[in-house]
Amino acid sequence: MSTIAAISTPNAAGGIGMIRLSGEQAIEIADLCFQGVSGRKLASQPGYTAAYGSYTDDSGVIDDGVAIIYRAPKSYTGENVAELCCHGGLFVTQKLLRRVLALGAVPAEPGEFTRRAFLNGKMDLSQAEGVMKVISAQGEAALQAAENTLAGSVSKKIGQVCDALIGAAAGLAAWADYPDEDVPAVESGALEETLRQNIAALETLIKNYDAGKCVTEGVPTALCGKPNVGKSTLMNALSGYEKSIVTAIPGTTRDVVEETVRVGDIVLRLADTAGLREAGDEVERIGVRIAKEKLAAAGLVIAVFDGSRPLTEEDHALIGLCAGKRAVAVINKCDLPRAEDLSPVKAAFACTVELSAKTDDVISALRPALEQLLGTAGLDFTQEILANERQRRCCETALESLRDALAALTSGVTVDAVNVDIDCAVEALLTLTGKRAAEEVVNEVFRSFCVGK
Ligand code: GDP
Question: Which of 205, 208, 401, 405 has the highest CB neighbour number within 10 Å of its CB?
């Protein structure tokens, strides 16, 4: 395999720049452009050692710095690796990269170092995706989840599910193929139990991923309600400063104002909306259309009602639109006398919060309800958390197959059919970890990586 090279530090000026080489010739190529002050060749040094010296090309010294070497298989990629550190200038790093390319290295593709680590068995696909999550993590919880994935927690969990399923399938196959032999009959009760346990394990992984996303990436949230119920006031209270225009004239919040707010650990990607009424004027109508689209695209709806006034047709329309959505009802203006009957709201929503956007600490008021609704209460980021949608899809596919297997088993369909479903589930899980992933899947995973990683 060729020896690859790339600038592994950001494409910007900084304290240190690093050119990474990986492949059989990595250390030899480094030796051709590096002269250590000790006079010793890098090729004569053991792995995990560093040397100070200067980098040169035909016309002289390029820079000075420290070269670190790693010897296969004890390196990130599992190959020989040289990391040439120099000063972190854009030009100097590029000049040094050009030098190692001239000496026989080839430019690394995006993610190629990690891809080689995967191909050399240093990590599986889910861990490789963990690497990307670590790089892109923007908060404590996201980082912790990513570090866990990188450390192999997802791989381990998926491996356990796979082992249990493969064991069950093997028992089934032996029993079905050799009915006359002395193969122990498969206890359908035990098999059912195995299926149920692993269904539960996959459901938990998916549930935690969905909840975790509300923390690590934020949940697209639609803030809805007819004009004047207090959406802007609530939004401002959540975001801590005046972003929306609050007025007492109905219909003045015309644009969709996007805002990210944090409620406890949960990140809400909020779109303040222009009210849900069928508006007459053109600008307002655009706002209403966007509001409806936002509601359709939202992962969470916060539906606001004015507790000081009786419900109107518009309120009922909103209640209807929220059916089947993950939605919390906020009964606002609780500092004012209560209107007679708000029971239709309480009956329609799984979760209702009564507050005053004007006088209450709205974050404290909303937090328990949101944590419950989004499943983040008690979410433990030291547990295994799937890294991305690809992993989630694999789990979903496996889960569907296992549900089919369970249905087949309990309805007395032939053992073969149950086995086919279990095989499908195992296949999906092996795709997740990359143990049996098609080339396109692997390509897709590394496509999103940066060069030099
Ligand atoms: P929007 O049209 O839904 O965005 O409503 P606004 O946030 O603009 O609020 C409309 C009016 O209701 C304003 O005069 C607010 O000051 C008032 N308002 C909002 N929330 C409360 C509340 O909790 N209590 C009281 N008393 N007034 C509120």
Answer: 405
CA nearest 81: which of 89, 91, 73? 73
- In the block, tokens 């990474």 appear at 20
Distance from residue 271's CA to the centre of ligand 1 (Å): 17
pLDDT value at 415 more than 70: yes
Please compute the mean of the pLDDT values over residues 400-412 and round it to a whole number.
93
The CATH code of domain 131-213+388-447 reads 1.20.120.430
State which amino acid sits at residue 360.
Answer: D
Question: Is CATH 3.40.50.300 what the domain over 219-374 is classified as, yes or no?
Answer: yes
Class of domain 4-108: alpha beta
Minimum-distance ligand 1 atom for the alpha carbon of 226: 3
> Measured between alpha carbons, how far is residue 433 from residues 155, 157, 169, 200, 228 in Å?
6, 10, 19, 19, 51
Sequence ranges of the domains in the chain: 4-108, 131-213+388-447, 219-374
Residue 43 has pLDDT above 90, yes or no: yes
Phi, psi of 210 (to 5 degrees): -60, -45
**Burial track 306-326 (b if 16+ CB lie within 10 A, e otherwise):** bbbbebeebbeebbebbeeeb
Q: What is the pTM of this model?
A: 0.75
Whether residue 73 is preceded by a cis peptide bond, meaning omega within 30 degrees of 0, is: yes
Percent of the chain with pLDDT over 90: 57
- Which residues, at least 6 apart from 348, have a Cβ–Cβ distance to it below 8 Å? 319, 322, 323, 329
Phi-psi region for residue 60, left (φ > 0), alpha (ψ -120 to 50) or beta? left
Distance 339 CA to ligand 1 centre (A): 16
